[in-house]
Design brief:
alpha/beta, about 575 residues, 10-stranded mixed β-sheet
Length: about 575
């Protein structure tokens, strides 16, 4: 019997488990106890769905996409899991009957410290969307012990406080020690052999990504660094070094030590994900010549660039492929999502760092670069300067974006304008050489979270005028456009918006003790603090508006009140970004 079939059955089962586990009931239980019971009830169905999905993929020989990303900003999974299983409204009603606040229970879960910004939210949206559509897309990342950081403002300045998101057990993850993988770092190449490596064990933890009321679950696999099984004993320095690999997201790389640490992180999760897929492929007794028919590796920004040379290494060094055939398999397997057009934001690593940390990988990158440059020269289409800019290895650096373009069969931007700029300006020569590779994928949004759950008042307006079909097929929302001049509909939309603005005003008052005018225009910029995101232009504009209001009666008479709202974290070592936060405050 489904324990979520109706309110009566749900409450009866919920009370039974509270009594069994905590010797209490709905009246006396704490929010944490109720959270634990609710999550355990959901996990039973989720784990059944995981097994069914795995069997469906394996038995049907379905192709998998492995989505490699340094971040997945998944938020509170108890919220999305309740919504996607289809039980949110029923559980909300059941608890309301008992005068229990469901939102207080949901708040017991810490935000998973696995991501920070738009890059991580894009990854999370793709995981959610693929699960909803029944597409086998699996995430691959790191299991950070601490999130980016918690931000405190003191004397108008950002102060970083550790985000210990794993202080309480993360109930949605399953440790898989039997699928751990040994990852080599450092070492040397002697007589064609890779020797004297330092080994680190990558231990996977799997998190179910629940499909939208379809009984399917995909998987987000996150890797934790542990002591290698090759060593019975290990020095304190070794143990500290491996602990730092998965200690936090984006460690400070202003020092050489920090640069090496970031490189370790990037190779560690890339190599673990590639090797995991290769081991699964062999276990299913498939030929590596058909690898690209069964796996697609999506490289989300340049952090997972080492996916390309690592797959080449496995194919050549372990599976005995010649270079050309290994290269064809690799290019057919890999795709690259570019996120920025700015040169300063495109990763480049000093050759010495890559060569020291990953000697065999650097050899392969050098060979990829050599053959690529030869193909450019043979085309007679580019002059010396153009070829130098397109090189993967140049100016004493390894250029990770160039590696991703050369080593992938598909390169996409994340908005039409962005992709147009890549094609016509920043990566124009690559486009001339590889026109078939470039395409656009406009970033989307998870409507189940950012509309159905977060804005039910607006949803009720849609339901009233166009019915609920848009909830299953979001394109049906286009039908609402027919009411753009209907005064009654516009009034209802304004009322829903007013409700949301009042909620935000009350939260700001509660959290910050600042009273704002909910009838003002809310001008909101919430995103990572960075020069290219231009928060500094925003605050300079606010200063300009303020000066105009002070100096011009005419400007005051024609000005509609605004409330400017910022939300942003600056990287701890990013001096100008932290000064911008100080200026805003």
């Amino acid at each position: 019997m489904n324990i979520f079939s109706d309110k009566v059955v749900f409450k009866e089962e919920f009370n039974k488990r509270l009594l069994k586990n905590y010797q209490t009931n709905l009246v006396g239980a704490s929010s944490q106890e109720m959270y634990n019971v609710l999550a355990s009830m959901m996990l039973e169905e989720i784990n059944d769905n995981r097994q069914k999905t795995r069997k469906k993929i394996d038995s049907g020989n379905l192709k998998k996409t492995i989505y490699f990303s340094m971040e997945f900003l998944i938020g509170r999974l108890i919220t999305s899991n309740l919504c996607n299983l289809g039980y949110f409204d029923m559980v909300l009603d059941a608890f309301m009957e008992e005068h229990i606040d469901l939102y207080e229970i949901l708040a017991m879960e810490a935000d998973a410290g696995l991501g920070n910004g738009g890059l991580g939210r894009l990854g999370a949206c793709f995981l959610d969307s693929a699960a909803a559509l029944g597409l086998p897309l699996y995430g691959n990342s790191l299991r950070y012990s601490y999130g980016f950081f918690n931000q405190v403002i003191k004397n108008n300045r950002q102060v970083e406080v550790p985000d210990n998101w794993l202080e309480n057990p993360f109930v949605w993850e399953t440790k898989k020690p039997q699928e751990a993988i040994e990852i080599p770092l450092y070492g040397e190449i002697r007589y064609g052999r890779f020797e004297n490596q330092i080994w680190i064990k990558a231990v996977p933890y799997d998190i179910a990504i629940v499909g939208d009321k379809n009984g399917l679950c995909n998987n987000l696999r996150i890797w934790k660094a542990e002591k290698s099984d090759y060593y019975q004993e290990a020095s304190e320095q070794y143990l500290r070094d491996i602990q730092q690999i998965t200690e936090c997201l984006y460690p400070d790389d202003s020092s050489d030590y920090g640069k090496y640490l970031r490189l370790k992180q990037q190779y560690f999760f890339s190599a673990a994900g590639v090797r995991s897929a290769c081991l699964e492929h062999k276990k299913l007794k498939r030929s590596f010549q058909d690898f690209a028919s069964y796996y697609s590796f999506q490289i989300n920004d340049t952090h997972p660039s080492f996916v390309i040379p690592e797959l080449m290494r496995i194919l050549m060094d372990e599976e005995d492929f010649e270079y050309d055939e290994a290269w064809q398999i690799t290019v057919n397997t890999c795709s690259f999502t570019n996120h920025t057009i700015l040169q300063e934001a495109l990763e480049k690593w000093p050759i010495g760092f890559v060569k020291t940390l990953l000697p065999r990988i650097y050899e392969i990158i050098e060979e990829i670069n050599k053959r690529f440059v030869e193909s450019l020269q043979a085309s007679n289409r580019f002059n010396y300067d153009a070829i130098y800019q397109m090189r993967i290895v140049g100016s004493s650096q390894v250029r990770m974006a160039n590696l991703c373009i050369v080593g992938s069969h598909s390169v996409n931007g994340v908005a039409k304008l962005h992709t147009d700029i890549l094609i016509n300006q920043e990566m124009h020569n690559f486009y001339l050489f590889y026109p078939q590779k470039f395409n656009n994928k406009t970033n989307g949004v998870t409507q189940r979270r950012w509309l159905f759950h977060s804005n039910p008042q607006l949803c009720s307006v849609f339901d009233k005028y166009i019915g609920p079909s848009y909830r299953e097929n979001f394109e049906n929302l286009a039908a609402f456009e027919q009411f753009k001049n209907d005064k009654n509909v516009i009034f209802d939309v304004i009322q829903a918006k007013k409700y949301a603005k009042n909620r935000l005003a009350m939260k700001i008052k509660r959290d910050l003790n600042i009273t704002i005018n909910p009838n003002s225009i809310f001008d909101i910029q919430v995103k990572r603090l960075h020069e290219y995101k231009r928060q500094i232009l925003n605050i300079l504009h606010i200063m300009y508006v303020y000066q105009r209001l002070k100096s011009s009666q005419e400007y005051r008479d024609n000005y509609y009140p605004h409330t400017f709202i910022f939300g942003a974290k600056a990287a701890p070592s990013y001096y100008i970004a932290k000064k911008t936060i100080q200026l805003i405050n």
